[in-house]
Amino acid sequence: MGKRLLLAAALIVATALPAYADKRSDAKAQVSFGILVAQKNLWKEAVRSWERATELDPTYPAAWNNLGIGYEQLGRFTDARKAYEKAMELDPNNTLIRNNNDQFREIYDRQNRRGGR
Amino acid sequence: MIARTAAAAASLALAVGAAGCLSFYEIGVETPIQAKLDVSPFSRVLVAGFVTGGSKNIDPNTETARLLRSQLRTKSDLKVIDSDVMQLADEMDRRKGTVQAPSPNDEPRIKNEQDLLAYEGIFKDAEYWKKIGAEFGMPLIITGSVLFTEVEKSGMVNKPTSFVDSQGITRYQEARTYSDLKGYALSPKFMFIDGRTGEVLYSESFHEERLYPKDQNTPALSTYFELMDSLLPSFLNTLSTQKIRGTRILLK
To answer: Over the stretch A41-81, which tens digit does the pLDDT of each residue have?
Structure first.
């Protein structure tokens, strides 16, 4: 009985791992493409790639971080805040993400302080 | 020995591996900040003039109107109306029946914020601004007050000092010394008035100071422009979306 259970668990892990690895590698490809187009100042295309990356792998902090930057550049501040928060939740010790978020928050808070606009 | 070498090789491989995984790219961003005021009902802007006072070394009314007009021409979508700069303080004096002859030594009649208060009533006179608006085709009107005053202060400042170290090399370091300073303070209050109704749509106040060592002779006009330079982005952001430049780190 115990052996069967162990075998079943091993099977589940063995089948799930490649699928997870596939999703992460697909997400990485989307993130890389997003970086490439962002460097050419094509921010809308970059955001589309990073959105796709977060759909493929919602646990990928880099994708959320980049998406935050992309939304910020497009003036979508509420979406940017959520994306940065997700990135920090997934990788709380990453100082690069934290620095990006801090710089964004400086602008975001200033915009929101203006007479309740 | 072999074990130690193996451990060192393993840690090096780990470090290289980690560095390989950690890819990041610095990228320039321009974060757009939305305009504070919806100016879509207006196609033209009139920088009317300002109630000004303080130092007699410059004419803040003319300088401010000229500077704002030139900035708006290049950095906003509104068409700037060319007109004579209005003398709002004279208008208020006329109303109060206290028209003053110019003083022989050109002393300004408004010397401080207290004096300025007596003239602020003009901004609340919606009928007056409505009339001005009708005259110029219902534009957005920019007016307000500008106080440009001389300031003298004493305090600790950082001064570069040199010394020769034990090897005979001259080195420099910052030393905090007590110094007498003088300079100027600029306190503008910009008011944005709807030329159709005469109502104030938005107003914003600023305060900036620049101080120099007392023996340094800095012209008032150059200090004025320096001070205005630091306020202009915020002023322009009232009417149009501005972009804040910065850098962010993209991760892989």
So the answer is: 999 999 999 999 999 999 999 999 999 999 999 999 999 99
Residue B23 lies in a domain: no
pTM above 0.90, yes or no: no
- Could you read off the pLDDT of B115-154 as tens digits, one per residue? 888 888 899 999 999 999 999 999 999 999 999 999 988 8
Contact B180, B170 (CB under 8 A): no
Whether residue B173 lies inside any domain: the answer is no
Residue A50, domain CATH: 1.25.40.10
Q: Name the residue among A31, A18, A110 with its Cα closest to residue B36.
A: A110
- Test B31 with A72 for CB contact under 8 angstroms: yes
Which member of B29, B244, B252 has the closest CB to residue A35?
B252
Q: A96: nearest CA in chain B? A: B249
Q: What is the CATH number of the domain that holds B67?
A: 3.40.50
Inside any domain, residue B163: no
- The pair of structure tokens assigned to B247 is 């850098």
Q: In one letter, which amino acid is B119?
A: Y
| ipTM, interface predicted TM-score of the complex | 0.82
Give the total number of structural domains in chain B.
Answer: 1
